[in-house]
Records
---
Amino acid sequence: MDTTATHTTTAAPVVRIRSLRRHYGTVAALDGVDLDFAAGTFTAVMGPSGSGKSTLLQCAAGLDRPTSGTVAVDGIGLAGLSERRLTLLRRERIGFVFQSFNLLPSLTAAQNVALPLRLAGRRPPRTAVREALARVGLADRAGHRPSELSGGQQQRVALARALVTRPAVLFGDEPTGALDTVTSRGVLALLRELVDREGRTTVMVTHDPVAASYADRVVFLVDGRVSGELRSPSADEVAARMAGLEKAPC
Ligand SMILES: Nc1ncnc2c1ncn2[C@@H]1O[C@H](COP(=O)(O)OP(=O)(O)O)[C@@H](O)[C@H]1O
Ligand SMILES: [Mg+2]
């Protein structure tokens, strides 16, 4: 905590997105997006299929380069970075989890979690790996391979791996999309807890109104543009808004 900040100071957002455009040929996947993700907040991104949700996350996480516009993470503009610097920033400051977990099958849970530290050329301190696994409730599974873990447990390992470097922001693209309802709720409760307990800034794409209701804010995308948002949303409010968006004429 910065105790020198005055009460009137508004903290800079962890992620700042301005006039973001990403065109694929004639398709405008993102068509002018302005968004801020404040520190310690949990945001859900929703919208019809093809509305640009994944593209937004990929651009915000430095996995894709926008056609125009800017993304800043932790005050650092991504556009000006060389590939090498961008890779380093992604590795150190940005966590990403995918629907399909993307764990390496031949490595144990602990080895998967240690991977980002190894890639950064650090010798992974065993305590950091153990702590990361403990934070997701898997302290007793360190030696298990992905095939020996349930889907929910695999996603928890992926979360521990994404968080082991203590990134400024965690992105998830449908992180509960491959999980059954009960397991999915467990992972969402964990994401919520990490935000509340550790101040993890989290941005999650989902198509599930119940998943979105775990967030502080839901941002709706339509045709590559922000079409509105809800604060402290209930699942019913989100479902009603989504039904409206999906019925909207093209
Ligand atoms: N690599 C790509 N090449 C061409 N078009 C793409 C590519 N990625 C996404 N698109 C297009 O951009 C639009 C937005 O895609 P996406 O961000 O994946 O949407 P969502 O995640 O909301 O379903 C879609 O029309 C999609 O077909
Ligand atoms: Mg998508």
---
Amino acid sequence: MGKQEYCVTGGTGFIAAYLIKSLLQHGHTVRATVRDPGDEDKVGFLWELEGAKERLKLVKADLLVPESFDDAVRGVDGVFHTASPVLVPYDDNIQESLIDPCIKGTLNVLRSCSKSQTVKRVVLTSSCSSIRYRFDAQAASPLDESNWTDLDYCKRGLRGELPNTALGFVHIDDVVAAHVLAMEDTRASGRLVVSGSVAHWSEVIDMLRPKYPDYPYESKLSAQKGDSNPHSMDTSKIAQLGFPPFKTLEQMFDDCIISFQQKGLL
Ligand SMILES: NC(=O)c1ccc[n+]([C@@H]2O[C@H](COP(=O)([O-])OP(=O)(O)OC[C@H]3O[C@@H](n4cnc5c(N)ncnc54)[C@H](OP(=O)(O)O)[C@@H]3O)[C@@H](O)[C@H]2O)c1
């Protein structure tokens, strides 16, 4: 694929930042949307990325402002839509703080894309949360692109210390590679499950504790019931597109810990 111009929404985000880094390294031009391009504390690190000074543009856009993304996507070849509220207060405001920005924001982005006349593909970053929270997760496993989370399941509203939750984990390198594949491989369409391994949080702690004994670990398991049900993810769709084997849970956490150590966070 030749050099393209891509828009990445939510440029200050975790997934977006790694994606922007990879796209710039591959010689593409990137328009990253942020809510405040002048906020150096939030966007400064993007300007340090290799190729940023030559090929990165920051464009102001907000998910909740209609037509906000028009300028950002006009003229680009493809759009990676990663902007979304993720960690929001767990209260009665979920509709306003999470659901509205996700749905209205995505529609805003898609409307801007359809107006642009240049956007050929849109890759929308979702989550295993859109698949995995089902009463019948175990029986329905391996969960594939045809499965959706159950709305009633999500309305139960429970939480605790060490989450009593089993969920899909995936290395950020695989996330970035999957986004690029979804954008550049014209055979890719619809939903794509991108999930390295499913594990319970207690398994993650059991894996880390002997390897990194000096760090403190949460050991009190939440009394929350229902999210620990074993399940598995069917990743054959992306494998059939030539995606290599996913990195292991151990690689994910080793690289995560190294990154935290390098940044002085651990
Ligand atoms: N990280 C994971 O482990 C993971 C796993 C599965 C799925 N995902 C999904 O991947 C997507 C991105 O996740 P992430 O971890 O990269 O999230 P993140 O680091 O929290 O980044 C979210 C981005 O969205 C932006 N944003 C939030 N509300 C906005 C609004 N109203 N208007 C414009 N921008 C807004 C944020 O901008 P500000 O900086 O201005 O707040 C930020 O740039 C989400 O849909 C998430 O559910 C993430």
